[in-house]
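Quick entry between incubations.
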Amino acid sequence: MPPRLAPVTDHDALDAPADPEITAPAAASDAKLLLIDGHSMAFRAFFALPVENFATTDGQPTNAVYGFTSMLINLVRDEQPTHVFVAWDMSGPTFRTEQYAEYKGTRSAAPDEFKGQVPLIQEVLAALSIPHVGISGIEADDVLATLTDRAERQGAEVLVCSGDRDTFQLVTDRVTVLYPRKGVSDLVRMTPAAVEEKYGVPPGRYPDLAALVGETSDNLPGVPGVGPKTAAKWINAYDGLDGVVGSATAITGKAGESLRANLAQVIMNRQLNGLMRDVDTPLQLADLVRVPIDREAVHQVFDALQFRVLRDRLFDMLPKDEAGTAEDVEDLAVQVTDLVPGALAPWLAAREGQELGLDVAGTSAHGTGDAWALAIADGEGESLAIDLATIGDADLDVLGAWLADPAAAITVHDAKSTSHSLAGRGLVLAGVTLDTLLAAYLCHPDQRTYDLGDLTVRYLKRELPSGVDAASDGMLDLGLDGDSSGGRTAAARAVAVRELGEPLRADLATRGATALMGDVELPVLATLVDMERAGIAADVPYFTTLLNEFDAAVERAAAGAYEAIGRSVNLGSPKQLQEVLFDELGMPKTRKTKTGYTTDADALADLFARTEHPFLENLLAHREAIRLRQTVEGLLKSVSPDGRIHTTFQQTVAATGRLSSVDPNLQNIPIRTTEGYRIREGFVVGEGYEGLLTADYSQIEMRIMAHLSGDAGLIEAFRSGEDLHRYVGSRVFGVAPEDVTSAMRAKIKAMSYGLAYGLSAFGLSKQLGIGAGEARGLMDDYFERFGGVRDYLTGVVDDARQEGWTSTILDRRRYLPDLTSDNRQRREMAERMALNAPIQGSAADVVKVAMIGVSSQLRLRGLASRLLLQVHDELVLEVAPGEREEVTELVRAQMAAAADLSVPLDVSVGFGRSWRDAGH
DNA sequence: ATTTTGACGTA
DNA sequence: CGTACGTCAAAATA
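Done. Structure below.
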């Protein structure tokens, strides 16, 4: 029976016109051919990705299609092959089964979920214009071997992607096998050296080795008692399998006996595992050249498969969208004019109503700053550089008025820092309509930095002129020779900022974040400027006393610890502690870390409970004391000359949308322990104010969860006004609310909060110190009563997997590509992030809206009270004399009204002379 | 000299 | 095998 081309052959793809974007290699020797064993890789993909997580809404499983396509996109992106081809196995007999009926006989039938996916993969390949063929009676590997030979003879480089080790025999200097180690994303490059290293024989003799050792997956038995080591030894000693067979009688020992008994099998193995290199197929290298994808078909197929994330990745990879390669990036065109006295007003007048870019060279920290130069750029690449050291009074007045004009329409990168810098020169920044830093953050909230130079390359395909991409507050800008080099630097940055406005606005719109930027992030930024500038008053004498006290406690604990073991060690060194605890004192080993065994507080407390060794007691006391001392020391160091501590709120670091606080971090001041709580007494009301007011949301994340899930029981819990955990506990345990014991309440509380973090039954049992069974039962009971919560939690992850992102009540997105990773660790991590991001992020949205409401009400009513701090669900204000009542009401009202949820937002307020007194 | 790790504070 | 952060000192690495 002559081999015939199978129906899956996609001749249309072969006939497609050459892609103008992909230039065919001038000679075959420049060609790079990617060959894929379709079934082998599809099968790997099927087992790498959990089938229950990958299905279209009508139930068609797609995990193999997804994994295969994902692998293909990655390979094409990373390897940049000029030619691609996929070979398929066909059902029915092959020359191997004819020769040996048991060939591959141990293979169980493919799962039903798998079978249907192969035609879908073929549809994807058709849309991608990738030729793919199955030939009856011939295995895919034989087709690949034949094409490998043909391509290699023409001087091409070949990559063979297959999970079948028989392909190792194809490896040469020009042929590399990509063999999946785990899943389909972790491919090992099998080069001649790699094969030799792993098996001890060159690639050409791999089939010799396999014939001796056997191949379980093909149902080819090897010689009993002969493993890869012995086989390699023989093959090398007798110059190949023929030599081994010929000298079989000369091989001594048990293994030799075994070999002689199985010679026939070995010889047949070798016949079967040798790949055919002369399959009769008309396919030539030239037929496999990459051609343009059929965009329309890709959209259709990917729509049907509901692959959103993959589609984006695919289109991102295509040459057309691939701009940003080094040779494409030119310098940004900038025309700089140094300010001539009197020229500012006409320059601005000529650009009345236009969006202008601003960049300021200066510094900022601790709620203040300085500026020495700035530049304003228009949309034509013209930039006006202004040296603030030499600017005349008239121009300064014009500049000040323009900056302070709310209608000025200014785009700037990092408006918060810029505001502080300008404030150092008495200038106010008001008319910011876009902050490119914030915009980049909203579009890519997981990124670590949003450097202006990087944005320029990414969005404009332009490079900032050399020496300019450093932040404008660098000392380089000082212009030591007295010229306005600070202004020159600012000039280029201002142009970049101005030009970034358009693509970033478009990107914000695409991602549904326009309103979030305009209504939340920019207004809250203005509030943060005021908060950072205000700072919070510190009671320095009190902190100093506290420092001494903690110091003494550190000494005491250290002395106690040294006495307990009869020598001194560095108590802050986990390494030395491990020596003491596990080697010297012989205590039971704790949980493992990368470098040994943990000495964290939990583990130490556990060890103390078991051994009651006084060293542990002192060590724990030392840990606490040294930490408190450290905290107080840090706070004292950060007190500004005005006697206040000015933290910096970071608006673009937390991927969920929260703020963070640095230098110092005022969002992690102790509160749980009584000793730690004393630190809050050092944060006090400032001169001229009446007291500090704290207002916090109670259980805001649980309320958000109730709202998002729409779970009737949970909503009712909040509406009833009953203690939440007591209410939930009564439902879960089936008792009256008043019969919920404190132990029951504690369990419920831990579980309720844990759910929002993706807590597992295992984690819950660990945390509560209960059995895994009890924890599992507790969770089952919980979900039994609050099924809406479970439906929400699973739904949110599934939706995120489909869409590629999660979103909050104000449409703040977090992108989680790892939801489709075939690495379980990464995937499950992303799943927990997907559970938490909408909850934590929505809470962050609500608090930001509240901050905007509070600060605008304070301003509208002409009150002197002011916001000082935000600690995620808590606001701290400084209240001016006589304003306490009005501010309390205003804060309550604004916070409660910050979001319209299906449950009330409960706010509790406290007042006092210190943060401690104001707490509750 | 700089980066990574372990530990630990907050929501 | 529970999310999001920042800070410090020690350890690891250059």
